[in-house]
TrEMBL record:
<keyword id="KW-0175">Coiled coil</keyword>
<keyword id="KW-0812">Transmembrane</keyword>
<feature type="domain" description="Flagellar M-ring C-terminal">
    <location>
        <begin position="259"/>
        <end position="407"/>
    </location>
</feature>
<feature type="domain" description="Flagellar M-ring N-terminal">
    <location>
        <begin position="46"/>
        <end position="221"/>
    </location>
</feature>
<keyword id="KW-0966">Cell projection</keyword>
<dbReference type="InterPro" id="IPR000067">
    <property type="entry name" value="FlgMring_FliF"/>
</dbReference>
<keyword id="KW-1003">Cell membrane</keyword>
<feature type="compositionally biased region" description="Polar residues">
    <location>
        <begin position="304"/>
        <end position="323"/>
    </location>
</feature>
<feature type="transmembrane region" description="Helical">
    <location>
        <begin position="431"/>
        <end position="448"/>
    </location>
</feature>
<dbReference type="InterPro" id="IPR043427">
    <property type="entry name" value="YscJ/FliF"/>
</dbReference>
<keyword id="KW-0969">Cilium</keyword>
<dbReference type="GO" id="GO:0009431">
    <property type="term" value="C:bacterial-type flagellum basal body, MS ring"/>
</dbReference>
<dbReference type="InterPro" id="IPR006182">
    <property type="entry name" value="FliF_N_dom"/>
</dbReference>
<keyword id="KW-0472">Membrane</keyword>
<dbReference type="Pfam" id="PF08345">
    <property type="entry name" value="YscJ_FliF_C"/>
</dbReference>
<dbReference type="GO" id="GO:0003774">
    <property type="term" value="F:cytoskeletal motor activity"/>
</dbReference>
<protein>
    <recommendedName>
        <fullName>Flagellar M-ring protein</fullName>
    </recommendedName>
</protein>
Length: 512
């Protein structure tokens, strides 16, 4: 180690003795720069990496947090606006857990902790006001947990409890103001969920009595579908409109890609208008088929016999003995009875079908092709192919129209001219860059030759290679000429790199 140190020290001393004034200044500047850079790196490396602990703090919360950090003896930084507190990154998680256990921050609002310390002598009105304030605070905290929400305020109007108030005379109402984070927007489903959250958190509050606005006082709860059948049947919801647009876009893309492959890019334009049926239809269907005999029972009964039919004059005369006997006549009878029982197996089919909303009621397709590219006799074939690809059904009332019209290509020609101009400018730029590099190289070669070639045709005294390697110096005058300075630099170069100098001299001698 000592030998290495000694060698390095010797090399440095040798360099310092052989260096001129300019080289010494550059060496000192480089050394100072390296020392300053190392010091700066060490300084910034030892500084802790500060990360935000909390952002968008209220003044009360910021004061409470800084007081806690002072008690914990944790270094921290506060932003210029006082809303952001930064702590060392390696302590960020532990500090958050500690502050959360202490109930800090509160978000600038108070919740049901208001009832932790009851006050003596509170009236019912005081307790009602405290309850309303606590409920608003709890709802505010819950809403601010949404990723899109930066700040929130909740205002609740509760009906007054009175023995003389008529039933359902007043209704609870609520208003929510949201400040969203930059480039954030709430979806319709999120607004509906927020309305139901507030409505289900307040007794007697109906969803239609909840109003939500943003920081620009634009209502977010208007035209929100809360499940009303009237709204469902009166207008298209956002999701239905999105489905319609997506279907039209997919159909246009399908037909456009097919035509581009045949006629080329930009030679055809396709537009599709779809009419969808969003009614939910339930179909109950029952079919009866032909009857089939399952069992049959036949019963027949035949009866034959005779009977006496009484005859005479009605009354008491015929019933008195001694009178003339009544004459009687014999009558024969016959009866037939048939009973048939036949059981049939009936073919019965029941169908319950629910047609999902969103089926296509009608399609209108318009296709324009470039008349300069498509011939008139090809229009019919194009119409048939597009109709088949998109499933156009004329029986359903679908329409398709294909028209061949010459397209205006002036914009494309102008664009092509601009591209050609840009390509030429890029080529000229490359030529200018390479030309500049060539000029610089030529100038450097010229300057090098000028430095190495003596001025005024004055030839230096011939010096042998042995004298140059031995470091023989040329006599110096009191007033050094430019030639003598060059000779001194050559001598120093020969001392430092003797092999390279010798090779250069051999090359020059060979050229001569």
């Amino acid at each position: 180690m000592k030998e290495l140190y000694a060698k390095v020290r010797e090399k440095l001393m040798q360099f310092w003795q052989q260096a001129n004034q300019t080289q010494k200044i550059l060496a000192l500047a480089a050394a100072v720069t390296v020392v300053v850079a190392i010091g700066a790196i060490l300084y910034f490396y030892r500084q802790p990496d500060y990360q935000p602990l909390f952002t968008n703090l209220e003044a009360a919360d910021a004061g409470a947090i800084t007081a806690k950090l002072d008690e914990m003896k944790v270094p921290y930084q506060v932003s210029a606006d006082g809303k952001t507190i930064l702590v060392p990154a390696d302590q960020q998680a532990s500090i958050r857990l500690k502050l959360a256990s202490d109930g800090v921050p509160t978000g600038g609002v108070v919740g049901f902790e208001l009832f932790d310390q009851p006050k003596f002598g509170e009236t019912d009105t005081d307790r009602q006001a405290k309850y309303q304030r606590a409920l608003e605070g709890e709802l505010t905290r819950t809403i601010m947990r949404m990723n899109e929400v930066e700040q929130a305020r909740v205002h609740i109007v509760l009906p007054q409890n009175s023995l003389f108030a008529l039933e359902n005379e007043q209704e609870a109402r609520a208003a929510v103001m949201l400040k969203l984070k930059p480039y954030q927007k709430l979806k319709e489903e999120q607004v509906v969920g927020l309305i139901r959250l507030v409505a289900n958190s307040v007794k007697g509050l109906k969803p239609e009595n909840v109003t939500i606005v943003d920081s620009n006082m634009q209502s977010l709860s208007d035209d929100i579908n809360l499940g009303s059948e009237e709204k469902n049947s009166s207008k298209l919801t956002a999701s239905q409109l999105e489905l319609k647009q997506q279907l039209e876009k997919d159909m246009e893309k399908s037909a456009q890609s097919m035509l581009d492959r045949v006629f080329g890019q930009g030679k055809a334009v396709v537009r599709v208008t779809a009419e969808l049926d969003f009614d939910r239809v339930e179909i109950n269907k029952e079919d009866w088929g032909d009857k089939v005999t399952r069992s049959e029972q036949i019963q027949e009964e035949n009866q034959k016999g005779s009977s006496t039919i009484p005859q005479g004059v009605p009354g008491t005369t015929t019933n008195i003995p001694g009178y003339q006997q009544i004459t009687q006549q014999n009558n024969s009878s016959e009866s037939n009875k048939s009973n048939k029982i036949r059981n049939y197996e009936i073919d019965r089919t029941q169908e319950h079908r629910v047609v999902a909303p969103g089926s296509i009621k009608r399609l209108s397709v318009a296709v324009m092709v470039d008349g300069q590219r498509v011939k008139e006799d090809q229009v019919g074939a194009v119409q048939e192919v597009v109709a088949s690809a998109l499933g156009v059904d004329t029986a359903r009332g679908d329409m398709i129209k294909v028209t061949a019209i010459p397209f205006d290509t002036s914009d494309q020609q102008a664009l092509a001219a601009e591209l050609t101009k840009a390509e030429k400018m890029e080529l000229y730029k490359q030529i200018a860059i390479w030309a500049g590099i060539a000029i610089v190289l030529i100038w450097l070669a010229f300057m090098l030759k000028k430095v190495l070639t003596p001025k005024g045709g004055i030839q230096p005294e011939p010096v042998s290679v042995e004298q140059l390697l031995a470091g023989v110096s040329i006599e110096k005058t009191e007033e050094k000429s430019e030639l003598e300075k060059i000779q001194e630099e050559i001598e120093q170069l020969a001392k430092k790199e003797p092999e390279n100098v010798a090779g250069l001299l051999r090359t020059w001698l060979a050229e001569e």
